[in-house]
Structure formats: C-alpha cells, structure tokens
Amino acid sequence: MSQNSSRREAMRAQQQAQEAAARRRKIVGIVAGILVVAIIAAVVIWAVNRDKGSEEATGPQAKPPSANVKTGAYTVYPKKAKKNAPVVTVFEDPQCPGCKNLETSNLGHAIQTLASSGDIELRWQILTFLDDNLRNDSSSRAARAIAAADMVGKLAPYHNTVYANQPEEGTGYTDEQLRDDFAAQAGIKGEDLATFQKYYDNNTTKDFAEKAADTGLQTGTNLTKKFSSPFVTVNGQPWEDWQMMGDANQAQLLDAIKKAAK
C-alpha cells in the first residue's frame, strides 16, 4: 500500500469517527431534550393538581349548624328571636365594598344588636359572585372559612372580622389571613382552632358554601332584576329603606323594620 493510500485511509477513518461522534452527540441532545420536556410537563401537572387540590374537598362534607339546609342562609343568633320577630336577611359578598360599609357601620352594629336581643331574627346569605367579576376565588374561600367558623361556634365574630379586614378590591384574602389571622382575631383557639383549620384545609364546607351562594343569588335575582349586594329583605321582601337609616338609633331602626314587616 502506498503512502498516499495510507493517508487517505487514515483521513477516512478519522472522518467516520467524527461523524459517529456527531451522531452520538445529536442522540444525546435529543434524549436530553425529551427528558427536559418530560420534567417540565411533570412539574406543570403537579402544579395544576396542587392548585386543583386546594379547591377540591379532600374530606367528608358538612353543613354549618346555624345554616338553613334549603336556603343556605345563616341564622346569626339561633333561638334568640322573640315570637313574631321580623326576619332581616342581608345578602352580601365577602369582597363587596358596600357590604363592608354596611357591616362595619353603626347601622350594621345596630342590626346585630337587635338580633342579639331577639327583637329581630338576623340572617346572612353569603354570596360569591364577585369571584367571577374579579377573576379570583377569594369570596369562595372566605365563604368556606365563615362556614368553618360556624362549625366551631364562632360565626358572628369571624364574619365580622372578615368584613373588618376586607382587602382592596381585587386583591383578595390570603389563606394565611383566613386560616390563621382572622381565626385568632375571632377568638378561635385551642382544639377549636385545630378543628377550624382542618375544615378549612380539607374544604369540608365547600359544597355547602357553593350551593348557598348559588341559592342566594337566585333568590335575590328573583326578587329584583337589578340585584346587587348588599341587598336586604324583611320577611322575604326587598327593603331599600335601610339605606336611609344610617343615623337612626336602635329604637328607630326597629320601628322601621317592623313597619316593613307589615
């Protein structure tokens, strides 16, 4: 074999080795790319399932003791109302600024005082329609937390804490607020706190809160085509005069409610 032939053979062998190495690198790159895509897909699926799991019930469902099964409305002070006391129902969404204004005003406090004394029967119909408007799930989570608070006998204190600490519109409540901060402010502690947090974590009141919100919204829209929150009824009929009662004392407020009840 000539020297030139040997040189050509050596060059051909080197070229073949380089091509083989290139093919190996290409294969390794493809495999690595597939693995990266698979890992990313797995992470995305995990994240979706994690978020989905936070919204789905993970334990047995329960109905809050102060709530009516059919309407989903809470009776704020069960068995307190005197015979023939007018029934005042407040339809409200936890993210509704007007609802906060009502609940934290002198009028809101007066209504609750009349309920605690038995002069009226006060009911709360918790809605969640603002979740769609604001593109979050804050009202739904707050509604479930309010229901969980009722499960441990702290409906009114927790409800009032939620409205007193309502965030700026669109911001929404955090899980830490609903699960920890508001519970502490409402006086939920010890075993009751552990129970409340278990209900919140497991979404034990999810089915109830959703059905109550849907029923309440349907009831309100059946009563008026221009339904919005806050919305107040007396004995099941719309009562708009509450908006003019901001300066009324309790006696005047009770007289107005009794007049509307006739």
UniProtKB/TrEMBL annotation:
Pfam families, A to Z: Thioredoxin_4
Q: Which domain of life is it from?
A: Bacteria
Q: Which residues form the Thioredoxin-like fold domain?
A: 83-222
User: What InterPro entries does the database record attribute to this sequence?
Assistant: Thioredoxin-like_fold, Thioredoxin-like_sf
- TM ranges are 27-48
Q: Which UniProt keywords apply?
A: Membrane, Transmembrane, Transmembrane helix
* UniProt-recorded name of the protein: DsbA-like protein
